[in-house]
């Protein structure tokens, strides 16, 4: 019989690519780790690694077994977490990944959650939508808060309230108007939010400019809203961002104006890996988030949305 320890050893070797590094990560000596791998291969009757290469590379059977072993270990972790929660309720760590321009959805909910569940600690991760999705797939976070669109094939998606786009200008431009039209941006350098990978807000703003008959002069594109707004404050150009993004950071040196002839809205959502067990702490957090921002309530009787 193959035991859980051997599966964990095998997965670690596959991910580290070397027996030495795997032994260090597992805090065991190299010879017994090599012996465990040998025993596993003997039980399976196939070689799992190509030992001729400089780095230990998985064979074809090894690649298949690696994917299956990871699934089994994840299922075991989920089962242990679910069993523990039957007795203990909401405890442990809640890991949340969030796009920086969506932080406004979080602050009040985190405070209220901590008041109700003081035994739960938080692990917050920040990144663009692509990196938050990666963190969720790799199980570094329990839930993600991202900007849409995304590929929904792996996730349960709970929409958050949409958010109007606004114009943000350097304060010293000293425009006398109280609002702008999209055509005003034809004359200005634009600084736009852009994902590291995939399409999102950048493409939406560019398309809106084209719909109004001009090609935008994009001076800078950046995935970080704080950097972008800081550049606007320094007079580098104007930007178009979700209104909640500006209200969250409140930088000096900028002026925020509505765009009267644009119906663009930024869409955000909570995403959950539909293959994973959803801890009670996530259900409690989402219910509080729902009360704060008027989103659909997650059904706690189900593991998924």
UniProtKB/TrEMBL annotation:
Keywords, in A-Z order: DNA-binding, Transcription, Transcription regulation
Whether DNA-binding counts among this entry's keywords is yes
Traced from the root, the source organism's taxonomic lineage reads: Bacteria, Bacillati, Bacillota, Bacilli, Bacillales
Q: Name one Pfam family in it.
A: LysR_substrate
What name appears for this protein in its UniProt entry? LysR family transcriptional regulator
Its family remark reads: Belongs to the LysR transcriptional regulatory family.
Determine if DNA-binding is one of this entry's keywords: yes
**Domain annotation HTH lysR-type: ranges:** 2-59
């Amino acid at each position: 019989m193959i035991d859980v320890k051997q599966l964990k050893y095998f997965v670690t070797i596959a991910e580290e690519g070397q027996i030495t590094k795997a032994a260090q990560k597992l805090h065991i000596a190299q010879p017994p780790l090599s012996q465990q791998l040998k025993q596993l291969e003997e039980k399976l009757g196939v070689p799992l690694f190509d030992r001729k290469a400089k780095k230990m590379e998985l064979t074809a059977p090894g690649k298949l077994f690696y994917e299956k072993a990871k699934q089994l270990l994840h299922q075991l972790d989920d089962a242990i977490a679910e069993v523990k929660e039957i007795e203990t309720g909401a405890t442990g760590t809640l890991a949340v990944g969030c796009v920086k321009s969506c932080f406004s959805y979080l602050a009040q909910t985190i405070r209220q959650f901590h008041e109700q569940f003081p035994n739960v600690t938080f692990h917050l991760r920040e990144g663009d939508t692509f990196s938050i999705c990666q963190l969720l797939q790799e199980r570094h976070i329990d839930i993600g808060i991202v900007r849409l669109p995304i590929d929904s094939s792996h996730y349960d998606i709970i929409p958050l309230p949409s958010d109007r786009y606004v114009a943000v200008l350097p304060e010293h431009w000293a425009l006398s108007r109280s609002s702008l039209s999209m055509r005003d941006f034809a004359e200005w350098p634009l600084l736009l939010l852009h994902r590291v990978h995939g399409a999102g807000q950048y493409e939406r703003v560019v398309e809106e400019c084209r719909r109004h008959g001009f090609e935008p002069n994009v001076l800078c594109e950046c995935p970080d809203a704080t950097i972008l707004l800081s550049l606007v404050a320094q007079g580098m150009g104007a930007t178009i961002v979700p209104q909640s993004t500006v209200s969250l950071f409140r930088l000096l040196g900028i002026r925020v104006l509505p765009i009267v002839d644009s119906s663009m809205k930024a869409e955000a959502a909570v995403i959950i890996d539909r293959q994973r067990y959803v801890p009670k702490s996530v259900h409690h957090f989402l219910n509080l988030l729902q009360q704060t921002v008027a989103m659909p309530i997650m059904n706690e009787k189900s593991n998924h949305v």
